[in-house]
Write a structure and sequence with these properties.
- It is a single chain.
- Helices cover 28% and strands 20% of the residues.
- It is elongated.
- The chain is of the alpha+beta class.
- Strands 3-4-5 form a 3-stranded antiparallel β-sheet. Strands 7-6-8 form a 3-stranded antiparallel β-sheet.
- The protein has a domain of 43 residues.
- The longest helix has 13 residues.
- The N and C termini lie far apart (35 Å).
- The N terminus is likely disordered.
- The structure holds zinc ion (2 copies).
- One zinc ion binds next to helix 3.
Length: 123
């Protein structure tokens, strides 16, 4: 399975040993974005069932499904301050979905790439 080397540290956190080469002077995307385990932990601690579905206890927003509240938690809370920089046209997107939509509309040849690689900490 490629030459992607994964190794777990003592806490069970997967470390990415083979990071893609970042642009000079900027941090690589991987390591900026939190893992899905972090998102699950956040949802377990800060989201609750409501009459209509789920509610985020941090900001009070309601959601119909667990999937939609997980996306909200990931983009708005866990990865708050992360933006995605399109490598093709240097456009910044605020969420993972936004960069995916941007790429599928504007750069269809890049469809399917791992957009976590485009993540940057907001300055
Ligand atoms: Zn929220
Ligand atoms: Zn673009």
């Amino acid at each position: 399975m490629g030459n992607m080397a994964l190794q777990k540290d003592r806490n069970g956190t997967i470390l990415f040993l083979l990071l893609p080469a970042g642009e000079p002077g900027s941090r690589s995307g991987l390591g900026v974005v939190s893992s899905s385990a972090d998102v699950s932990k956040f949802v377990a601690e800060h989201c609750a069932r409501s009459d209509t579905g789920y509610v985020c206890l941090v900001c009070g927003t309601g959601f119909a499904s667990r999937v939609s509240i997980s996306v909200h938690a990931r983009d708005m809370h866990v990865n708050a301050g992360v933006v995605y920089l399109c490598p093709a046209c240097k456009k910044y997107c605020n969420t993972k979905n936004a960069i995916k939509i941007h790429i599928s509309r504007n750069h269809p040849h890049m469809k399917g790439v791992d957009v976590n690689r485009f993540a940057r900490k907001k300055q």
